[in-house]
Amino acid sequence: MVMLKDLPDPFVTMLSAPVGESPHQTFNCRNQEQLAPAHRIEQGGIGFSADEPIGTEHVGNCVAVIARDPTTGKTGLAHYDALITQESLQSLFDRLPEGNLDVVIIGAMYHENAMGNDYLQKTSASNLDDVLHFLSSKNVNIIGVRISDPQQPTNFIVDPKDFSFHPVSPNIPNSDKDLAFARKFLTGQKQPLTIEFDMTESKERFPYFLDETQVQNINDHVKGKSFAEVAAWHRSLGARGGFEDVQANLSLECYLPAYERAIDSLIRDHGTTESMVRSQPIYVGENADLANARLVEPAEINSLDKPSVDPAYPVTYFKL
Length: 320
Fold this sequence. Notes:
Layout: E1 12-15, E2 24-27, E3 39-41, E4 45-49, E5 54-56, E6 63-68, E7 75-80, H1 90-94, E8 101-107, H2 118-135, E9 140-147, E10 156-159, E11 164-166, H3 177-182, E12 194-198, E13 208-210, H4 212-221, H5 227-236, H6 243-270, H7 274-277, E14 282-284, H8 288-296
Helix pairs in contact: 5-6, 6-8
């Protein structure tokens, strides 16, 4: 059995050499200008593409799982962290063709002897264990890894056309970046990975889903509360070291306005009342209006080929 550490580094390409000479290696680091624009996948998200580059940032103690169908070239990237449910990794494979997929694993850079605090080391190990345990039940070929290495690139993109990896940041902006980051802190429970886009089906990003618990927490602990009260609530969920202030700011300045915009749109455009929708699951962010319309008007679903909603969540209609 091949050990993970013996597998090729995805950021390094083996180049052919003249007869009689050893192969040599070079970094896959074409200049950003030479690469097509790359769509960004946020921490806790999944994205898919068959021809346009995709990428992510801040893969430290997190683990990025990149799977590609060698026949179609369709590639999915999941950015897994300690606040994500292990079983939601299935969402990465649900949108890829069945068969023998090629997989690359990057991350978990803080091994036990590396620099970094105890939390980073422990979560590096647990995140990697989660991913490997999940993949053990899949019919995949792990063809490359870059793990347990403090020098690992934390920002990178992958080109689905040739499955090449490049240590540069994805450069297509995501207007909902803060929503993606903050959604995990609206509850003290782990959250599923969320599908952010599938470029093989639509060029639009998907909105972010708030379940009943997250909606209730916004209404009970954020709406109408002071900064100090919201920070105290986040502290009660375990935030420390000033991170409770970061989370409070995101809850008040990012999620609450996005949530209220979604509520206002439903009331204005779909004849609902605040009492109908205030306690119900809802989508927020880019393209949220279309997704929410399908929740309040389920008959419209049959007239639309591919709803731009996150299939990782059950479809829950508003109780009108």
